[in-house]
From TrEMBL:
InterPro entries attached to this UniProt entry: Acyl_CoA_acyltransferase (IPR016181), GNAT_dom (IPR000182)
CDD domains: NAT_SF
Location of the N-acetyltransferase domain: 136-275
Gene3D superfamilies given in the database record: 3.40.630.30
Transmembrane domains' residue ranges: none
Protein name: Predicted acetyltransferase, GNAT family
Alphabetical keyword list: Transferase
Entry keyword Protease: no
GO molecular function: acyltransferase activity, transferring groups other than amino-acyl groups
Origin: domain of life: Bacteria
Keyword Transferase in annotation: yes
Provenance organism: Lentzea waywayandensis
Amino acid sequence: MDAVVHATLESFDTATHDRLSADPVRNTVALTSLDRIRRSPATDLLPILVTFHENGEVIGSLIRTPPWPFQAADLPLAAAELAASLAARIDPDAPGVTGPRERSEAFATATGKNYTETLATRQYRLGTLARPTVEGTGRLATEEDVELLGTWRDAFLSEAVPEAPNEPATEAMRGSLRLGNGHALWVIDGTPVAWAVASLPQAGMTRVGPVYTPPEHRKHGYGAAVSAFVSQWALDQGATDVLLFADLTNPVSNSIYQRIGYQALDDWAEFWWKH
């Protein structure tokens, strides 16, 4: 087995596009993050793009879109040692790895570094959508909402993913809207009370998240309502696989998603290096 480090996204796409698109559920994070780079490139944060080959055939890949961890969803278990050795040479500043638990843990272990599990999630796929009956209405967010979206994004990350890199949230939300992602707000008497995002479909796949309800508006079903609203938006955009991840330490969110029609698929884990 050998590895190829790609200098350009075009080269990586040539080697992996068909492979990643053939399994959009497992490769959801790679497909959405690479699409974002294609359409809104940040030249100061070039992605790390690696493919693994055996007998002239691509058998897997590993990517990282700084400042986020490596994505190991397409990493063959047999390539974990090679991937860890290569990553140490070409990307020593990487903070960690995320992906299906078996693959991400194999990579983390192969690095020989001390690491901590920072996030355990369950991947879900929408079956038959069951929209709940909840006070209020849903609407799509616009440019006029970006300040609120930025504030809520910061609050979500602080609460759910405190290890996440610090990025300008308002600009990130403005860029996401311009890329065509669906940002939904649940509104009562003109006041937004919950927010959910769905990515523009890639290879028939859409991923929902983040989903956030401010503490003062919780326990009223608004999170379920806005999640169902944005899921319907995704279906209307032509998505055939509507996915989301739920934090396994939050049984409430896991039960909510199942009630509106999501079915469990696989467990993922994120590991960050200790310094």
